[in-house]
């Protein structure tokens, strides 16, 4: 299977996710964005020096996205919006259509009833659009929440969420850290793709971990070099590969050059959430993101991996350039996610495409009852050539949860 195209998007919007990480303790305004992002390369350069001249890519990606007040998700630039003219970089499903939350609410209400709980936890809530629409949809379904808790430590995004959700008062809360236990329904819409990944490169038949150095260190580097150097804020960050014992989770046929990602942080996050739900004794979790099962993710033809950047509704494959001014993301290995949740004690409810999940939850009837513009935007959620096929949904629950409606038809667990 050929890898997804990295060509600039020819349409009006690029779809991407809202990041979550447990490090950001501040925010800055748009007026300060230029000054703070110019400081980010200097911060990364210091980390490279402190690490002995070589920084693994997952640490570089973490700093680029989440360094307090400097990283992409930590400062106040516009991120979510339907058009580049808004100053945004991408659009997510909740901003694209309110019917996304309305359909998702059907599954959330079912899981709340099945587990006897009345709280939703959302990780990486972005602009707050999903929270606002889901609370209203659950009220309309007769499944009102006692609490909607958001875990999103980006100060800039939290301020936007608080403004958007102010009308809900104390029903909405924000958490700075995970509790000792979790009960209720956990949601992560485009969260896993924004978690830092490790890069592995097979060069000359041997596996290496790909990291980042400063160009000045290049002459002394003993390991093979990736060819391209990227100038960023008057500092040159360049790739450097080091031999490693790390491997992709499956054997990749052939000996040709091959670059891919592994996802220890995302899988650890899912395992942690699963363990907390187990400890709480009752709950479910749904993660929605773009990605593939393991066999597709590590297909021999996917030779350059899935890592891309998003800015102004266009994509590029230069994560070392313009650090802090654009998003960095990788697709999700859903087999690894499934194993992480199962190994922590949760049952797998199902795995399917976003389009099929939303159709199972009644989005077709919602579209039929809507006006034409609403139908047109909602079609992007389910159409195979838009978000409907590339995006997937995976569900977990504590033991005893009945079959989930969202996976009633088109379940693909057998493909994981």
Order of helices and strands: HEHHHEHEHEEEEEEEHEHEEEEHEHHHE
The percent of residues in helical segments reads 25-40%
Total DSSP E strands = 17
Number of helices: 12
- Termini separation comes to 16 Å
Structural class: alpha/beta
Rg (C-alpha, Å): 21 Å
Biggest sheet record: 8 strands, mixed
Overall 3D shape? globular
Q: Note poorly predicted spans.
A: 1-33, 218-233
Quote the beta fraction: 15-25%
Average pLDDT taken over every residue: 87
What does this structure look like?
The protein is of the alpha/beta class. Helices cover 30% and strands 22% of the residues. The longest helix has 18 residues, at 33-50. The chain is globular.
Summary tags:
single chain, 416 residues, alpha/beta, eight-stranded mixed β-sheet, six-stranded antiparallel β-sheet, 12 helices, 30% helix, 22% strand, globular
Short description:
With 416 residues, this protein is α/β, with parallel strands linked by helices. It is built from twelve helices and 17 strands.
Topology (elements, then pairings):
Elements: H1 33-50, E1 55-56, H2 57-66, H3 93-96, H4 99-115, E2 119-123, H5 129-140, E3 147-151, H6 155-164, E4 172-174, E5 184-189, E6 198-203, E7 206-214, E8 229-232, E9 235-243, E10 258-262, H7 264-280, E11 283-292, H8 294-297, E12 308-311, E13 314-316, E14 327-329, E15 332-333, H9 334-343, E16 347-353, H10 354-360, H11 363-368, H12 372-382, E17 391-397
Parallel strand pairs: 2-3, 2-5, 3-4, 5-11, 11-15
Antiparallel strand pairs: 1-7, 6-7, 6-10, 7-9, 8-9, 11-17, 12-13, 12-14, 16-17
